[in-house]
Amino acid sequence: MTKHIAIIQGHPDPLGNHYGHALADAYSKGATEAGHAVCVIDVARLDFSLLRSKEEFDNGVPPDAIRQAQETIRWAEHLVIFYPLWLGSMPALLKAFLEQTFRPGFATPKLNEKSPWKRLLAGKSARVIVTMGMPAFFYRWYFRAHSLKSLERNILGFCGIGPIKESLIGMVEAKDSNKREKWLRKMHMLGSKGA
User: Fold this and answer.
1) Strand, coil or helix: what is 138?
2) pLDDT at 114 > cutoff 70
3) What's the fold here for domain 4-193?
């Protein structure tokens, strides 16, 4: 069964020449070869400002780039989010994008609406791929994957997205070419399955 897949590339460098970009490209290639419809949101290439107040978060009008990203996410059945671990968390630009995108009225009802609470993105699944310099088991064991768990619970799960799978890729600077190729093949396979 084919799916509509939105790939969210969360690396803040617009040059697009990092290992995380190659992983996303491999996933996208596997998905399109298998007949899935794929749309890519490259956060580093979007024009949007930071949210600076609760009023702006609750009632502000999203910029055009964010509205287009929301339409892509609304269209998608499966989200795939790629980002590098920076200072133990996602890069600030990706966090700013998520704040702009997953606002009331899109991800959850506005607080002033009288309707019952609804998770407006229910029925979608997700996979989060995080690259990092440390060993992945250390991030999961010692740091308890805190930033990843926050994304899964407080953003994706909060608005109804699930199930959520994850792929943690550690020691990316030290990986030899065979290990890098193995992960690229794995991303291609996951893309072909729409997983």
Assistant:
1) helix
2) no
3) Rossmann fold (3.40.50)
